[in-house]
Specification:
Elements (H helix, E strand, L loop, with lengths): L6 E3 L2 E3 L4 E3 L9 H28 L12 E6 L3 E5 L2 E5 L2 E5 L24 H13 L6 H9 L8 H18 L9 E9 L10 E10 L4 E10 L3 H13 L8 E4 L3 H10 L4 E4 L1 H9 L4 H15 L4 H15 L4 H8 L2 H4 L10 H4 L3 H7 L15 H16 L11 H6 L3 E2 L2 E2 L6
Parallel strand pairs: 8-11, 11-12
Antiparallel strand pairs: 1-2, 2-3, 4-7, 5-6, 8-9, 9-10, 13-14
Helix pairs in contact: 2-14, 4-14, 5-6, 7-10, 8-9, 9-10
């Protein structure tokens, strides 16, 4: 642990034990990062070289009119920098030449799958941009923010470039909202309304998100739109749009918080879908109605309910909570009991799925780092920009979403097989 400085000079601080060098603003002095960049540069070069060798070997039998090999190496392209999560990495792509005349575009051309001709940024950098934007970084400040993260030389990330990317992402989102859903089948839905106030244009504006699990257990983004608060009309429009584009079959179960708007709309569009209230939301709502001194113990009692092995045990834990807190904290108990049956719906589904469907975690975890803003930021998000940023953030998060455990049971859920306390019930012939 460093001691208090006893004197300072420009770029240095004198301590009793040793001298520590400070980097000047905008200067990156990190030997480890330089080692990583050098290693990345070498590995990238080796990977592209191997790709070139495989390409040449695959065409080794081709010869020109003089009997020489048609496909040969032809030097390198000019060196260029690719922005990555560890800063700029210099790369040189090998050239490949086809010696035969180019008759009607017949020449064979090499295109690297690792290093496309116009690549300037690794995908990880582009995934960083929506996160920064939703955190409150304005377009004009991106250069400074990225320089701090990626190093002082971050070419191609000017305000103009950011604006162009935003436009491209908005177009991508619009195409996504028109995709055909007739071939899709979702067994489970998770739904939530996401607020970025005061980052959104209007204080009562929120983004409506639906994530689904398909018949083989993969999670996907099903719906994304903006709405007025979480009104039933806003949810109804989103659900009807999904159905209009081919999502006719209702999910077997939907998980969400207690916002009445979603559930009213769900019953109108997919009336046969079972309802599961999110235990994360419900726990937070109940604890907010209790003194802080009791919240730790009460949280444990709530956990006893949703962690119970059987529904009967959960009902007993429910009754205990009512008896323990009902006399003094009737509002907390009323908050819990109003959704009693819908909090325990998951017991009628496979036990392997319980940890997935008891909460809206696929949505909550995605936005945990950007939704809890309380300070005013420069440049509120327009409707178009907010949807584009959240869409890109979801696309990035989707790569990390886990497949459902017990995916072999999804076909049984679709077929209407009965589960009691998570266990499939054997149907005996009469």
């Amino acid at each position: 642990m460093l001691r208090s400085p006893i004197s300072k000079k420009e770029g240095y601080a004198m301590y009793e034990d040793r001298v520590v060098s400070f980097s000047h603003p905008g200067e990156i002095s990190d030997p480890l990062t330089e080692v990583l960049r050098a290693g990345a540069r070498r590995l990238l070069a080796e990977a592209v070289e191997a790709e070139v060798e495989d390409f040449i070997a695959a065409h080794a039998e081709l010869v020109d009119d003089a009997g020489h090999r048609r496909i040969v190496r032809h030097g390198h392209m000019p060196e260029r920098d690719v922005q990555t999560g560890i800063g700029a990495v210099a790369v040189r792509r090998p050239r490949i030449r086809d010696r035969s005349p180019d008759v009607g575009g017949s020449r064979i051309r090499f295109r690297s799958s690792i290093l496309p001709p116009y690549l300037r940024r690794a995908k990880s950098v582009e995934e960083l941009l929506p996160w920064l934007y939703l955190k409150g970084i304005s377009t004009g400040d991106f250069g400074e923010a990225l320089a701090a993260l990626l190093g002082p030389d971050a070419p191609g990330l000017s305000a103009t470039t950011i604006a162009r990317l935003k436009s491209l992402w908005a177009d991508e989102y619009e195409r996504w909202t028109r995709r055909d859903l007739s071939a899709r089948r979702y067994v489970y839905f998770w739904a939530d309304g996401i607020y970025f106030s005061p980052r959104l244009e209007h204080d009562k504006q929120c983004l409506l998100v639906i994530v689904g699990a398909d018949e083989i257990g993969n999670k996907d983004i099903v719906g994304l739109s903006d709405g007025y608060r979480e009104s039933s009309q806003s949810w109804l429009e989103l659900l009807l749009d999904l159905k209009r584009r081919g999502l006719e079959v209702a999910p077997q179960l939907a998980t969400g918080d207690g916002a009445l708007g979603f559930w009213k709309a769900l019953r109108q569009v997919y009336g046969q879908t079972a309802e599961q209230r999110c235990w994360v939301h419900k726990t937070a709502n109940v604890l907010n109605k209790l003194p802080k001194s009791l919240q730790g113990k009460a949280k444990g009692h709530l956990q006893d309910i949703w962690m119970a092995e059987t529904r009967a045990d959960a009902e007993n834990a429910f009754d205990f909570f009512i008896d323990a807190y009902g006399a003094k904290y009737d509002k907390a108990v009323e908050c819990l009991t109003r959704d009693r049956d819908r909090l325990l719906t998951f017991y009628g589904f496979p036990a392997e799925h319980w940890k997935h469907v008891r909460s809206t975690n696929p949505i909550e975890s995605t936005f945990a780092t950007v939704r809890l803003r309380t300070t005013k930021t420069k440049g509120c998000l327009s409707r178009k920009t907010a949807l584009a940023m959240v869409f890109k953030l979801l696309l990035s998060a989707r790569k990390k979403w886990r497949r459902l455990d017990g995916s072999n049971h999804l076909a049984e859920v679709i077929q209407g097989v009965t589960f009691k306390d998570g266990i499939k019930q054997i149907q005996f012939a009469a």
